[in-house]
Design a protein that fits this description.
The complex is a heterodimer of chains A (about 90) and B (about 525).
Chain A lengths: L2 E3 L23 E6 L5 H14 L5 E6 L9 H8 L3 E5 L3
Chain B lengths: L18 E6 L4 H6 L12 E6 L3 H11 L5 E3 L4 H6 L3 E2 L1 E5 L5 E6 L1 E2 H10 L15 E2 L2 E2 L28 E3 L6 H9 L10 H9 L8 E5 L4 E4 H11 L6 H11 L6 H6 L5 E7 L2 H5 L13 H16 L22 E3 L10 H4 L8 E7 L3 E4 L6 H12 L13 E5 L1 H9 L4 H11 L1 E3 L20 E4 L2 E5 L7 E5 L7 E6 L11 E4 L4
Parallel strand pairs in B: 1-2, 2-3, 13-14, 17-21
Antiparallel strand pairs in B: 1-5, 4-9, 5-6, 7-8, 11-12, 13-15, 15-23, 16-22, 17-22, 18-20, 19-20
Helix pairs in contact in B: 6-7, 7-11, 13-14, 13-15
Classes of the chains: A alpha/beta (about 90), B alpha+beta (about 525).
Chain lengths: ~90, ~525
């Protein structure tokens, strides 16, 4: 009988319940996260404009990671936690 | 330091003895990193008191998981936090015998912690090369958050604890071939040595540590690399128990935030960590630095490199058919480990240039492209050999990309002889390569929008061989020199980098403990 030691990561990821979808964006605080890949700002600039003018968001918070190659710093995560919804501008 | 007026009494504080008081939140990763360091302060010289801004259950969890050995009290209603008003956590206050604030330290800062220790007559409590960064900012203090409430952390969440869970035992069915099972579940496309309990125990024993000791958390899944799990991967890779002496500091170095293994594993680029070994450990454990140094020649090189990659795979979760989406990959993902041929190196060895003593064994890591070869068999002058190498250096990452790339030049013994005979010191080699690696400006055209051209405004113009060029590298320090290889054949190599600096990966060198 062969018994081996489990060499891998055994932690079971806990399924998080996503928060309820917003019924409307009007009057809401929306966070935008730029991951610092080239071109991200153009897309998010336009998105910010649409959120304010077309959807009546009360506040659009622009945040930017110092580099795309590392996790967002704690301070940015804390700022985004205070928002009603967050859009992350991923990829190139 | 301002006297805190009318502050509520700190629970447990006794006047007549200095005190280190630390405000913290249970879900702040910097607090989880920092607070255990205070365990080292003996209670004779100083009182140590932790003040939690969270509820009793989270605090109890925190204390038990992180094995905090000093008293921790709750700052109920955040009254004490409001009085002392730390803007961030963790904030450490050194109080004198009458409770006046003598010194304040914000965030995790190894130097600051050691100064705090010195101020109470203690030896340093935060050592370099333990895998933790030198400095890390904390989180906002709970009393400054819009709705100051208790911890939002779910109970039982795994914090940055020092002792992990024991590894499960898997009993294989009698009809199961252990080699096939392990290859499929935990292998690297090739069969591995099944990590039986006996073999793993022998590997753990060689470390002298408890098997559940957490050495590092391996990105991208941040799985806990306990001594036991590291040992299991080392068995699978074919390591001898003595190799744990190198594998543990190697893991700490890899998970050092400066190296950014998370980015290296997640990139679409070729990068794989190149492991470089220096010092007496080479002879002690049989690391190879001569002919075929990049190949499959020595158990030490190949098994160490492979154990490391298996850990990245099994504990970190960086599967090459999954989350590791490198477009073309890198043969080094099987094993990428070389030792320096210090005996053929007339200059100081690589680890000495990195700041260690010659007699101190060391492991260095570099996020590396596969090596690109340079043949130079006919030039009699060292300067010409270097010029030939500079053409290969110019192609690192992408020809027209300057400033960001770094490189290691692996010089073969024959090239080293020629260059050294012509009077070059190692610094002069780096300086020469730095000054003479340039990309002709005429290759940059805005219309084509080729990679590297978009940042041309930031590049430095130099003249190389009479031609206007952009300087490839930021500084001579971007080019490292490593002597390795066989004594026959005038072939050297350039090993290019991934993204570098604080935004990418930085080379790290960690000492390997003596035998």
């Amino acid at each position: 009988m062969v018994v081996i030691v489990h060499p891998g990561n055994e932690s079971v990821p806990k399924a998080a319940t996503p928060p309820a979808r917003l019924a409307s964006l009007k009057g809401k605080k929306i966070g935008l996260l730029d991951i610092s890949k080239p071109g991200g700002s153009f897309f998010l600039d336009r998105l910010e404009e649409i959120l304010r003018t077309k959807y009546g968001a009360a506040e659009v918070l622009r945040t930017k990671k110092p580099t795309f190659s590392k996790n967002a710093p704690q301070q940015i995560i804390e700022q985004l936690r205070a928002m009603d919804a967050v859009v992350e501008g991923l990829a190139d | 330091m301002p006297q805190v007026q009318n502050a509520p009494a700190i629970p447990g504080f006794q006047s007549g003895k200095k005190a280190v008081v630390v405000f913290f939140e249970t879900d702040c990763p910097t607090c989880q990193l920092a607070l255990p360091y205070l365990n080292s302060l003996t209670q004779d010289s100083v009182q140590v008191i932790g003040l939690s801004q969270d509820d009793e259950r989270s605090t109890r969890d925190f204390v038990s998981q992180l094995k905090i050995s000093y008293p921790v009290e709750l700052d109920s209603g955040l009254k004490i936090s409001r009085a002392y008003d730390p803007h961030n956590v963790p904030t450490f206050y050194l109080l004198d015998e009458s409770g006046q604030v003598e010194k304040t330290l914000v965030g995790f800062d190894k130097q600051g912690l050691n100064e705090l220790a010195a101020a109470v007559g203690h030896t340093p409590i935060a050592l370099p090369d333990d895998g933790a960064p030198a400095w890390k900012p904390g989180c906002s203090s709970r009393h400054l958050e819009p709705e100051a409430q208790g911890s939002t952390q779910e109970s039982g969440a795994k914090l940055l604890r020092r002792i992990g869970d024991p590894a499960s035992r898997i009993t294989l069915r009698d009809e199961e071939d252990p080699f096939e099972y392990c290859r499929k579940q935990f292998g690297d496309a090739l069969p591995v040595v099944p990590p039986t309990v006996e073999k793993v125990e022998a590997m753990v024993k060689a470390t002298g540590l408890a098997p559940e000791t957490v050495i590092a958390r391996v990105p991208p899944f941040y799985g806990e690399a306990t001594v036991e799990k590291i040992a299991a991967n080392a068995v699978m890779a074919g390591c001898v128990p003595e190799m744990m002496r190198v594998l543990l500091p190697l893991l700490r170095a890899a998970c050092d935030e400066r190296f950014n293994i998370h980015g290296v594993q997640a990139t679409t680029h070729f990068a794989a960590p190149l492991v470089m070994i220096n010092g007496p450990v080479r002879q002690e454990l049989g690391f190879w630095s001569k002919q075929n140094v990049f190949s499959n020649v020595a158990r030490a090189n190949s098994s160490l490199g492979r154990a490391f990659q298996l850990i990245l795979l099994n504990i970190g979760g960086g599967r090459p058919d999954g989350i590791d989406m490198s477009a073309l990959g890198n043969p080094g993902k099987f094993s990428f480990c070389i030792a320096e041929n210090e005996e053929e190196n007339p200059w100081e060895p690589f680890h000495v240039t990195r700041g260690l003593n010659r007699g101190q064994s060391a492991v260095s890591l570099f996020a590396a492209e596969p090596p690109r070869g340079v043949s130079e068999h006919t030039a009699p002058a060292g300067k010409t050999v270097l010029e030939t190498i500079s053409f290969a250096l110019a192609t690192v990452w992408s020809y027209r990309t300057c400033l960001m790339p770094e490189a290691i030049v692996v010089l073969c013994p024959e090239h080293v002889k020629t260059i050294h005979r012509d009077g070059f010191t190692k610094e002069q080699v780096r300086q020469y390569l730095f000054e003479n690696t340039g990309i002709p400006v005429r290759y940059y055209s805005k219309e084509e929008r080729a990679e590297g051209t978009q940042f041309a405004a930031n590049y430095k113009e130099i003249t190389v061989r009479g031609e206007k060029c952009y300087q490839k590298f930021r500084s001579p320090e971007s080019i490292s020199i490593f002597v390795a290889g066989g004594t026959a054949g005038k072939f050297s190599a350039v090993v290019g980098s991934w993204s570098t600096g604080p935004a990418g990966s930085q080379m790290v060198t960690y000492p390997i403990p003596d035998k």
